[in-house]
Amino acid sequence: MGVNAAVDEQAVGSLANVFAEVKAHLDERQRRLLLGAMARELGRGGQAALSAVTGVAKDVIGRGSASLEAGIEPDGRVREPGGGRKPVTELDPELAGALEELVDPESRGDPMKPLKWTTKSTQNLADELTRQQHRCGPRTVARLLKQQGYTLHGNNKTVEGKQHPDRDKQFRYINDLAAAALAAGSPVISVDTKKKELIGNFAMGGAEWSKQSREVSDHDFPDKELGKVAPYGVYDMAANAGWVNVGTSADTAMFAVESIRRWWNHVGVHAYPGATELLITADAGGSNGTRPRLWKTELANLAAETGLKITVVHFPPGTSKWNKIEHRLFCHITQNWRARPLESREVVIETIAATTTRTGLTVRAMLDENTYEKGIKITDKEWKTWQDDHLHRHEFHGDWNYSITAGAA
Length: 409
Prior knowledge:
Elements: H1 9-22, H2 28-42, H3 46-54, H4 58-69, H5 88-91, H6 95-103, H7 122-131, H8 138-147, H9 167-183, E1 188-193, E2 197-198, E3 228-236, E4 241-247, H10 253-271, E5 277-282, H11 293-306, E6 309-314, H12 324-336, H13 345-353, E7 362-368, H14 380-390, E8 391-393, E9 401-404
Parallel strand pairs: 1-5, 4-7, 5-6
Antiparallel strand pairs: 1-3, 2-3, 3-4, 6-9, 8-9
C-alpha cells in the first residue's frame, strides 16, 4: 500500500460510489470496516477524503482502519466491546426492583399500590415507572419482565374449592371399577349434559379461517321458534366413541336416562352383545346427579328393559372436569363448531356428527323432540319401597356409588 502526498480524487469518488451502493446492506461494523479498508488503500489523507464524500465521521473510519491493522477476527459483534448505549438497569440500578414491586403478586393486597386496580400492561407499567422517575418504555418493561421470570398468563381454573376428604379415594374407586369392567368386556360410559346452546344466527366463541367475519345477531335472546337445545352426551370409553342426544325440551333426569336408552338401543346392544352389566360414570350434580330420585327410578326402568345390572359411580362435588366425557368428547365438539352459528337443529346434529380426532374419536348424534316434564316428585313412601326392591348402595360412599337392578336389590 503506497503513501500519497495528494489523495487521488477520482479514486475517492469511485470508492464513495461503491460504498453508497452497498451501505444499505451492511451493518454498523461492516460499514466501518469497509471504509477503513478503503482509507488504507487511499493512503495518507484517505480518512478525511472519505469522510468528506460519505458523510461518515473521520474517527469512525479511523476505528475501522485500526481494527483491520490490528488483525481483527470475525466474532459476530456489530459494535466494539463497551460500545453502544449502556443497559437501562446500569443507568438506573433501582429500575428492576421498582418494576418487581409493581407486578409482585404478594403486593396485590396492598390498597396503596398504584396499579392495584389497573390492567398491568407493559405500557401502564412503563408510565407508572416513569412517574416514579424511572424513565423507560414498554419494550424495556417487557424485556425486564422476561428476565425476572414473568410471562403472560390468563386465569388457570385449578382451584376446586373445599375438597371432600374422600376425593382421591373416590377417584381410585372409580378407576378400579372401570378397569375391571373394561377388562371383563363390559360397557363403561361417561355421561353428562353439555351446556345449552341457542339456535339461530347467534355468535359462537372461537375463530376460524375465512376472508371476512360472519355477521351475526347483536343480542343473545333465544329465538321464540328455534329456542335452545340441550346436548346430552354418552362417551364409550372402550370404543372411543360418542353419542349425543340433542334434546329440545328440559334437561331432566328422564331426558338423561332416555339419552342412555337411545345409545344402548342404537349402539350399545350391538357393540356389547351378551353384556349383563353397564357401568356409568357421572357428575355429582345436574339431571344425572346423586340427589335426583327420578334419575335412579328411570335407570331401574332401563334395567328392566335391557336386562342389565346398572352401576353408577359419581365424581365428588366440584370435580366434574375429571369426568372423561368433558375432555374426550365435549371439548372436541366445542372446537368443531367454533365461530359457526348454530342456525338450525340440523346444523347442530351434523356438526356434532362430523366431530373427529386424530386418536380416532367418532360421534353419532340424534335429535330428541320429546317433551320432558319438570318437577316430577317421588314421595318418601314410594322412595323407601323402591329402594328396597331396586337399589344396592356400595359399602364405600353409598351416596356416590350404587347398583340398580330391575328386581330386588
